[in-house]
Every structure is written in C-alpha cells, then in structure tokens.
C-alpha cells in the first residue's frame, strides 16, 4: 500500500485532498487563509505555475525561480483579518519555517474575478 503524503500546509489532510486539488485546478481557495496555505504548499512542492496563477496581475512577477535546495518545514498562521467569502480583501500573518531559518510575513490578498489572489506582503 502506498504511503499517503500529508499536506505541507499543516492541516491534517493528505496533499492530494487538500492543497493538491487547488494546485491541479480542481478547486479554488474559498478564503485568503486557504490561498495562503496552498501557496505555501506550492513553494514546498515546487509548483511555480500555481504561484504565478494566484498572484495579483498588478504585482505578479514575470517568473518565479524557486530554490530547489530550500526545504520547507512548517507553516504557522499567526492571525487572519477578513479574507472570508463575505470580503473582497484580507490579510494573513504567518511564519513559514525552512531548514536554517524562518520567514515571517503579513500578506495581503484580494479577490479578482471572484478568486482569491496574493497581492503583496511585508516581512
């Protein structure tokens, strides 16, 4: 029997059933926090296509070069403000641990065409 890979986002679910379905385009993030978690997972699994697709058109870079040597070890959501189905914007403060360090950021999200996208963040 194959071992089920847990989702890097930290929720107690298999990757294929959690962020994997967003990465494959089978579902869209329902909240800013869910998008944040799925973007963290995209960094962890090396999915630059998904990162670009979920970036706000006004702030999206031309490309995303992922460092394949970075080993992401965990995500902690510190707080969320708005970012629900009833909002057009939201923020998510998080700490993302990687081997040798930590990224602490307050990220801003907005809805574009009904879908949540990453706008920018302050580290």
Automatic annotation (TrEMBL):
Gene3D superfamilies recorded: 3.10.450.50
One Pfam family linked to the record: YchJ_M-like
Domain YchJ-like middle NTF2-like: 31-121
Protein family (similarity comment): Belongs to the UPF0225 family.
Protein name listed in UniProt: UPF0225 protein K1Y72_16350
